[in-house]
Design a protein that fits this description.
With 112 residues, this protein is of the alpha+beta class. Strand 5 and strand 6 form a beta hairpin. Helix 1 crosses helix 2. The longest helix is centred in the first third of the chain and has 16 residues. It starts with 7 loop residues before the first strand and ends with a strand. The chain has a single domain, classed as Beta-Lactamase (2-Layer Sandwich). It is globular and about 35 Å long. It comes from Paraburkholderia agricolaris. This is Roadblock/LAMTOR2 domain-containing protein.
């Protein structure tokens, strides 16, 4: 579902582990004032970083690792562009985009 601004609005009951996990990492990125960068280095896991995707990989701060299946669910529940999700009474507005960091593909969640 999208709202008048075109943002993807996602609400799901019961709340999925993927949305709870995404919300937790979005909180970290908001606290740090930087984007959340997701990179898949193996077929089984995705690594999450905080930082500016326009910088170098060394500039990113690793903040966690999740199963690739969970990362895929986070992507399935969001869309490229503007998103608006509600998780446990808290609303998150963010922009999902793609980047290439030193030859590796990355998904970037940036606050709006």
């Amino acid at each position: 579902m999208t709202n008048a601004s075109g943002a993807n609005i996602h609400q799901q009951a019961p709340l999925s582990e993927a949305l709870r996990t995404l919300a937790a990492y979005l909180e970290l990125s908001l606290d740090a004032g930087v984007g959340l960068v997701v990179m898949r280095h193996t077929s089984e896991t995705a690594t999450l970083y905080l930082g500016d995707a326009a910088g170098t990989r060394e500039d990113l701060k690793r903040c966690g690792t999740v199963a690739a299946s969970l990362a895929n669910e986070m992507l399935d529940m969001t869309q490229a562009g503007a998103n608006l999700i509600e998780v446990e009474g808290r609303t998150y507005r963010f922009f999902r985009s793609f980047a290439e960091i030193e030859g590796a593909a990355a998904v970037v969640f940036s606050s709006t």
